Amino acid sequence: MLFPSLRTTPDKTALSFGDRELSYADLAQVSGALAERLRGLPRVAVWATSSLETSVAVVAALAAGVSAVPLNPKLGERELAHILSDSEPALVLTEPGVDLPEGLSSVPRHDVEITGGVTDPLPEPDAEAPALIVYTSGTTGPPKGVVLPRRAIATTLDALEDAWQWSADDVLVHALPLFHVHGLILGILGPLRRGGSVRHLGKFSTDGIAAALTGDGTMMFGVPTMYHRIATEVADDPRLAEALRGARLLVSGSAALPVHDHQQITAATGQQVVERYGMSETLMNTSVRADGERKPGTVGVPLGGVELRLVDDAGAPIETSDGETVGEIQVRGPNLFTEYLNRPDATAEAFAEGWFRTGDMATRDGDGYIRIVGRKATDIIKSGGYKIGAGEIENALLEHPSVSEVAVTGEPDDDLGERIVAWVVPSGAQPTEQDLADHVARLLTPHKRPRVVHFLDSLPRNDMGKVMKRALSA
């Protein structure tokens, strides 16, 4: 079973959203009644607001053996139309009272009610049965539907149980959206599989985090934009510092957490944030272990059951573990997706001899720790004969006292091939381009200094806090 605690811990709180909560017994009854309604349908969409209803809808679909398509409530018209055409859901499950966009008018609506009677559990679907279809962000074309089987969800969550010493005693605090792997699979389904509890804040705030972790919260999941807020406030907020100090585990994901933010949080709290690395197609691949060495800027070691290798531009495995040689991450294991929905061409292209080609570039040190240096398409800059990772330069620039946020990209250069471009949100007085170039040349090497600097009021980010570098380049 994906969630044995639905039968074994009836009185324990499973889900809490603000002042609304469900025990495991309540969740079993409510999701069970909805599962009976969904049984036999080919596929359903879930209008994924941050709510009890979204959580119940997904648990019910899983119980019914019906694949669910989480929909980001901020989807634009074109993306929504593409996803609906591609996935063809029989229903859209939604929180009552929510206004749905016109683009969903052709799909029958079913409001999720937090009511239900005692029902007999439905037969457990096969491990390879599709569970969720999560759509990619569509940075290189229309979003692709990643078909995730039940096997991948169970495998990833059980590997994280081992890596993070995750138990039924843990109470997870988070404020992540529920249309994505991080917020939904890890943040909602993870605690339910462990028999623990979730405290969802609805909306992120440092006050909310402090209150929840001062209460019964033991773990926090967040993205770098959240931890950046914490890093800038924690030194001057004793209540926040004390709450974080008492947490068992702080986990960051969905993008790299700058080393400078790591250092500020550790200096104020003594806590070292754990980073992990995953994708929609692979769920979780690596993590810093709860009982292992914390190396800020790394995403740890491969999780149990995950095979990982780095390959060079020709696809040959890189055998060295010197912490310097950059290669593309390829993975294989039971955590992987089944296919891209309706896209056999894209599915075939994503694999090389059974290994999934992530497109993420990284180094590996002598202890096996992986350090992501960027995306192959946007974060590897080939300048003057060197292969340079944007992430290394970003971390260096963030150490400058006048830099609040930064993104680094490359642009064509007749002499160098590509030149390094920094997009900087200043902190206080605006530094000069030469000052920033000299700062990087001093910390790293001269060929890694930015040749062009653009100053911005903010960086374009998606809902998970990732900087949208293609928008910068445009």
Automatic annotation (TrEMBL):
InterPro entries xrefs: AMP-bd_C (IPR025110), AMP-bd_C_sf (IPR045851), AMP-binding_CS (IPR020845), AMP-dep_synth/lig_dom (IPR000873), ANL_N_sf (IPR042099)
Top-rank taxon, per record: Bacteria
Domain called AMP-dependent synthetase/ligase: residue spans: 6-341
Any Pfam family hit: AMP-binding_C
CDD domains noted in UniProt: MCS
Signal peptide: none
GO BP: any one term: fatty acid metabolic process
Domain AMP-binding enzyme C-terminal, chain residue ranges per copy: 392-466
GO molecular function per UniProt: medium-chain fatty acid-CoA ligase activity
Entries under SUPFAM superfamilies matching the protein: Acetyl-CoA synthetase-like (SSF56801)
NCBIfam families tied to this protein: PRK07787.1
Assigned protein family: Belongs to the ATP-dependent AMP-binding enzyme family.
Protein name: Acyl-CoA synthetase
Organism: Prauserella cavernicola
Lineage, top ranks: Bacteria, Bacillati, Actinomycetota, Actinomycetes, Pseudonocardiales
